[in-house]
Design brief:
An 8-stranded mixed beta sheet has the order 6-5-14-15-16-13-18-17. Strands 8-2-1-12-20-19 form a 6-stranded mixed beta sheet. Strands 3-7-4 form a 3-stranded antiparallel beta sheet. Helix content is 32%, strand content 27%. It has a domain of 186 residues: FAD/NAD(P)-binding domain, CATH 3.50.50. The two termini are 22 Å apart. The protein is of the alpha+beta class.
Length: 430
Amino acid sequence: MTKPVIIAGGGIGGLATALTLRQIGVPCVVFEAVREMRPLGVGINLQPNAVRELCDLGLGEAELDRVGVPAREWALVGLNGADIYSEPRGLLAGYKWPQYAVHRGQLHMLLYDTAVARIGGDAVRLGARVTGYRKSADGVVASVEYADGSTSQVEGALLIGADGIHSAIRAQMHPDQPPIHWGGALMWRGVTRAKPIRTGSSFVGLGTHRHRMVIYPISQPDPETGLALVNWIAEITLDNSEGWKQTGWFRQVGVEEAARHFEDWKYDWIDVPALIRGADVAYENPMIDRDPVSTWRDGPVALLGDAAHAMYPTGSNGASQAIVDARMLGACMVEHGANEAALAAYDARLCGPISQVILRNRGAGPFGLLNMVDDRCGGVFESIDDVIPAQERADFMAGYKAAAGFAIEALNKAPRTIAEGAKASTRESV
């Protein structure tokens, strides 16, 4: 019997990997630490490059419409309420695929339910955490710890570490890696039933690079009330010279923790403190990432998703990149087989370029325009063209899209990552 590919972690990246391996005929098993899958989290964005890959997996607009809403606009707005930059997104921008703003938990459940339906009920083993690995003569052996305290050694052809920013696989692969990096930004996230602003499906960054709101809907408006689920992120920058002092990285708090920092942010088109106070709860966490590493591979083991490239959410492409990772890994297996050669090709194609995206996002990503406005005029302006000419703004955004892999022309012209009907090569590892 062929040994399966072991996937450590059943998050968005891990499940996208499982579905991809199923599509190309590679047996796999996912070990996920939680005992029960639940739709946790708030809003995230799926860029057109990731939506394209989901469509190629058979999860198209009909499925995505159930968990989110197509984005129409991306905009940055100054503290005076005036536009700094805006552009259409998704189909309106000329992409062949839409961009989606989705509820992370509902997207996760869509991937989970699809994986179980396509691969089988034993495909995702809950209450099971991969804690480490050792290489074997013909693959890898994963150490698995179960919720009941028992352990086992599971043999696999390969091991894919999709176990998040606190990855045990990455920690073993890179034992001397620096600790999690916090740049000083503190975020509160929440979801409020409210009327969508601007186009009705706009992603809006409001404020400055040190004090801002991000606002976008993640559902269609209710036909009777006109209210949609509106995702918001409230962010301030603190002195991080002494590092993160709290015991955990994530906690649930009352909405006043966030609202008090935005009390005066009231405009004729949005009342920010009212939006925050309309949520039932807020989730507080520092904006964190990890320094890039030189490789995502150790023989028959490879990293994927946040385990490989945890990055600041300023580019709205963390989950998107995890999906793209999964598809690129599958494409390499189509070319080389489910073997170490495929992992080497995957690492060569993605590790270097995506490491640069980590650093770009650390420099504020596309929100870097807010830094430029702040530097040049303190955030107060009458005409943005007098502060940053239109062409300079457009060039800045084009550079980010190219680095993150969703430049319009390049994406539209690119062939499918995995050709329709393609299966993993049977050639031996070299």
